[in-house]
Design brief:
The structure holds two protein chains of two kinds. By secondary structure, chain A is mainly α. Chain A has a single domain, classed as Serine Threonine Protein Phosphatase 5, Tetratricopeptide repeat, CATH 1.25.40. Chain A has six helices and no strands. Chain A is globular and about 40 Å long. Chain B contains eight helices and six strands; from the N terminus they run H-H-E-E-H-E-H-H-H-E-E-E-H-H. In chain B, strands 1, 2, 3, 4, 5 and 6 form a six-stranded mixed sheet that branches. In chain B, helix 3 packs parallel to helix 8. The longest helix of chain B is centred in the N-terminal third of the chain and has 15 residues. Chain B starts with 6 loop residues before the first helix and ends in a 22-residue tail after the last helix. The chains are: A mainly alpha, B alpha/beta. Chains A and B meet through helix 1, helix 2, helix 4 and helix 6 of A and helix 1, helix 3, strand 3, helix 4 and helix 7 of B.
Chain lengths: ~120, ~220
């Protein structure tokens, strides 16, 4: 075996060992990539929102990763969709009891600053 | 998490740099006595000249922590809410009382991350890309330090490499340095090594089957 091949084999073994503990618990979809793109270009908020919605919709009974409902709800809140935001925050709290304190505060914020509910999302 | 597409990079990084020699076995006594279930990642200190590094890094951190079995607070929402509350200055937040943050979010633990280096050095024949990070987990209940880790990932393609490994490394080098360097694979690798390595990483969280059963490894 020449040195090039043995180097590669060695590298592969090291690489695989590094991955041994990384079996996926959740389906994250394009969350990482879309958050990165959003930070690179804030005009891509719509794509981030769509990728979060996709993670939620694709879960099909499996557990949605921690924070995803809340992130989605926060974008809804920023768009003035306060009722939808509250619903998302409630989902986060229901799925992840660790989030209850924070979600309760956010639900309060979203409820108190709610625009006229019939016209949420409309221009001001 | 390690994406399949990052594999060549990881292999190249490990092959070229090797793993940093592990530090002395950390003390997990405080960690074990508290058994944190949730982690909030607060604004990241940036010691690099790349003003965007903290945001880009933030896009890499929730995933590996959650996959380790922890509840991770929504990183982008936390960042925005803290900014709205006048808590966007990472240096101030890091020097503050972890118990206040623990109370604010209802979080068992606070993750403080500092970007020590996030840069690319252009040398005549090749480019060297470095990501260096310090991770400190503190208790939201007692304020005590629960865990600390430090990672330096350097990617240096070798100009005179040959053979199959060399070809792969060169291809990765071209991808990683074309236009502007992509630090994300290096940040992912740093996170994976910090969080997942037995003996020095984070013990399994409550949503991992090994929660409370991995005392031999940590």
């Amino acid at each position: 075996m020449n040195t090039g091949v043995s180097l590669l084999v060695g590298a592969l073994i090291v690489g695989l060992m590094g991955c041994a503990t990384t079996n996926q618990k959740y389906d994250w979809g394009k969350y990482d990539a879309s958050l990165y793109s959003y930070y690179k270009d804030p005009s891509k908020e719509g794509e981030l929102s769509a990728s979060l919605a996709a993670v939620i919709n694709n879960s099909k009974g499996a557990k949605v990763p921690p924070g995803i409902y809340a992130e989605y709800g926060y974008l809804q809140l920023q768009q003035g969709k306060n009722q939808e935001a509250v619903a998302s925050f409630k989902q986060e709290a229901a799925h992840w009891p660790e989030s209850k304190v924070f979600m309760a505060q956010m639900i309060k914020v979203a409820s108190e600053s709610a625009p006229a509910t019939a016209t949420h999302g409309s221009s001001q | 998490m390690i994406k399949l597409s990052n594999f060549p990079v990881i292999i190249a990084v490990l092959a070229l740099c090797g793993c940093a020699s592990p530090p002395a076995k950390p003390d997990y006594t405080q960690f074990r006595s508290e058994g944190p279930r949730s982690i909030v990642v607060v604004p990241v200190i940036n010691k690099s000249v790349d003003v965007n590094a903290p945001d880009y890094f933030l896009a890499t951190i929730a995933h590996p922590l959650a996959e380790r079995g922890y509840y991770v607070f929504p990183v982008n929402m936390v960042k925005s809410v803290m900014a709205d509350d006048g808590l966007s200055d990472a240096n101030l937040v890091h020097s503050g009382d972890p118990r206040r943050l623990g109370e604010l979010f209802g979080s068992d633990a606070i993750m403080y991350i500092s970007i020590e280096r996030w840069n690319a050095k252009y040398i005549v024949l090749s480019t060297s890309v470095t990501v260096e990070l310090t991770y400190t987990l503190k208790s939201g209940h007692t304020g005590q330090e629960l865990w600390k880790n430090h990672q330096t990932i350097v990617y240096t393609p070798q100009g005179n490499s040959n053979g199959l490994a060399g070809l792969i490394a060169d291809a990765v080098a071209a991808a990683i340095t074309k236009a502007s360097p992509n630090y994300i694979p290096l940040a992912n690798q740093a996170n994976a090594q910090a969080i997942n390595l037995k003996g020095t990483g984070l013990p399994a969280g409550p949503y991992d089957g090994m929660f409370g059963k991995d005392a031999a490894a940590f």
